[in-house]
Design a protein that fits this description.
241 residues, two-stranded antiparallel sheet, 11 strands
């Protein structure tokens, strides 16, 4: 099996680590994700991961509850560090060499984010987990994923979700929702489709970074996406192959 993409940025939400509607980290789900990542590394893929913190704390929720937005966002960043360390532990228990790079310095726990260092780790076959988003409030982990993908020269962003692609409306609420096999960045922005936030989508559009949105709750889907199988929805400029 030959991967379609050599260097991949996988965007995981914090909610991917727990049962739907719950909080915290489900060890069984975490182990399943780690196993899939181990299988991917065996294909020779260079894998970087940006992980969210919504299973522990979401900055936007804190903000809407009356907290200062910057303080809430920093708390959300710290939640991503917890998830990154949990994922690192699960991977290293499977002998997958892993490095956590944090946008907020905490040298006892993680390496500081340095672009050249991140790329060197990838070249050496290590999984790189980017924690703490961009290190700045008012930016989501979607934007962090787009930014890091550009910085490491990734071939694609894989956006892991709980649905099997991009729809014209929420498929969990509307039975007549229509799924897109391919869609352009402009259409995503104009129609407000649930892919990534507008800042992240615009960044991908400006730099022609393809995004593949797929359902990660089905075992083996991450590998299928990397192999280039027709899965989920691909977001491109419209003229990309």
């Amino acid at each position: 099996m030959k991967p379609k993409y050599k260097r991949v940025l996988l965007k995981l939400s914090g909610e991917a680590l727990c049962q739907e509607g719950e909080y915290g980290i489900d060890q069984e789900i975490l182990a399943g994700i780690a196993q899939e990542i181990q299988d991917i590394i065996k294909l020779g893929v260079e894998l970087a991961i940006v992980i969210g913190g919504g299973n522990i704390f979401r900055g936007v929720v804190g903000y809407t509850s009356g907290m200062d937005r910057a303080s809430a966002d920093y708390m959300g960043m710290l939640a991503t560090v917890i998830n990154a360390l949990a994922l690192q532990d699960a991977l290293e228990s499977r002998n997958v060499y892993t490095r956590v790079l944090s946008a907020i310095q905490m040298q006892e726990l993680a390496e500081p984010y340095i672009r050249r260092r991140a790329r060197r780790h990838l070249e050496k076959g290590r999984v790189v987990i980017f924690a703490a988003g961009t290190g700045n409030p008012f930016f989501t982990t979607d934007t962090a994923a787009s930014l890091r993908a550009m910085e490491i020269n990734a071939d694609v962003i894989l956006k892991a979700t709980r649905v099997d692609g991009v729809y014209d409306k929420d498929p969990l609420k509307y039975s007549d929702a229509t799924k897109f096999d391919e869609v352009t960045y402009l259409e995503v922005l104009k129609r407000g489709l649930k892919v990534m936030d507008s800042t992240a989508t615009s960044l991908c559009m400006d730099n022609k970074m393809p995004i593949v949105v797929f359902n990660m709750t089905k075992k083996g889907n991450i590998q299928k996406a990397i192999l280039g199988e027709p899965i989920g929805t691909k977001v491109t400029g419209g003229d990309d192959v």
